[in-house]
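Q: Okay, next protein. This is RND family transporter from Butyrivibrio hungatei. I've checked the sequence twice, so it should be correct. Can you predict the 3D structure?
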Amino acid sequence: MSKDLEKKPVNRKDMVKNVAIAFLTVMLILTFFSNTIMNYSLPQVATVQITDGTISPQIRGSGTVTAEDPYNITVKETRKISGVAVKEGAHVEIGDVIYYLEDKESEELTKAKESLDTMELEYEQMLFSGDVPSNVITNVRNGKTASYDTYQAQVGDVLDTYNAALAEDNAAQAEIDYLTQLRAYEQAGMNYNTATPEYLLAQAQVDIEKAKNDGDEDRVVELNNFVAELTRDKSQLSTYSSQSGFSYDQKLATASEKKAKTAAALKEAERVKTDQLKSINVEISLCAKRDSIAEQKEKIAKLEAESVGSSVKSPVAGTVSSVSKVAGESTSADETIAVIQVDGKDMTTSFSVTNAQAAKLKVGDAAQPQNAWQFSSDFKATLTQIKNDKTDPAGKKLLTFKIESTEVTPGQTLSLAIGERTQNYDMIVPNSAIKSDSNGKFVLIVKSKSSPLGNRYTATRADVTVVASDDKNSAITAAIDDYEYVITTSNKPVKAGEQVRLANE
């Protein structure tokens, strides 16, 4: 018999059983994956358990401490610092040393003395240069300074003398010029008159020769008589010309002599004018140098009087809020090298809060440092002013506090808290857990339910009353257990009754 015929027939019950097992396995797998897919589509939420705790509904803020009328310590000279005697925050009395200085003159005093030496040398060299009149030297050395009116009168006198001499010299030269021109004019006339007889004489000689040739004796006699007359006229004109030349020579000689005198007088007047103007200018310069030397001496005396000696001391009692120099550095004239918060003067700090927060406060309220452990019991901060914040006048107020503490210095950042004190409550939740709608405030509690495939979580609404809040948490009352978990955040909006998944699962 063949092997196929030897096999036993399959049991029908076993077949049904195997099919059922396979079907259930497939259904279980499909159910698992469907639940997993559904879970990933659910809102993911973060939760926190309701606990008891404290609420601090105080208003907090931080600001920089500023001083009212701080005293700035300065020096009037450049000095090198050899040591610093105090630290910031130290309390000093009047006369306490702030800095120790190297024991030598300031740069300003040294330079001022060197400048004085140069000025005095230039003054003396100019005073005795040989170009300064003795009377000017005497006046300057005696400290006398002529007025501008005196200088003006002196200049006026020499200018008047010079102008008069110039006018006389110009007049003398004008007379010479006139005589010279007049002589030339008259000489030209006489030369013309002299030339006329010479021309007629020449013509007469021609006519005489012609009359001789013609044998006209009467004409010859007549012409000879005419020649004799012309000769006399020519001789007279020549004599007159010579006499006129001598006359002009005499007049020009007299005019030239006068011109020589006026030229000499003008030269002298010009010398006097030049010397006088130079004398005035030199006197003005010398007086200016003399006065500058006196001013420089006063400056040196003032620098010596203002010299701080070997140390810089505090002229007031108070707390050192700033020390800006270290040993080895140099001060500059009028530079602030330390700042002191004077005893009895106020220190203040300010910060902004919302209008709602400011409405809970009033001037006179006391504030405490947030880090109270850093301050002693004598710390005191008082609210002195509430006004609109310029950066947001409609939404914020600026609070200003008066600070009284020996442990606070200007420039320090101070954090304050003001308002109600901390209280204990049975149910505390984060502020992010509080929701609200038209029906009021509520929280979403996470309820869990077991199933064959794991826990299922559902968001359930619970109405609450907020009895106190601070910037982090709120105290609530509600008909819920104090061990419940409330939703604080979610990756998508959550409604009451919806299924959710936890962020840590």
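A: Here is a summary of the prediction. The longest strand covers residues 440-451. The mean pLDDT is 82.
Q: Noted. On to the next one.
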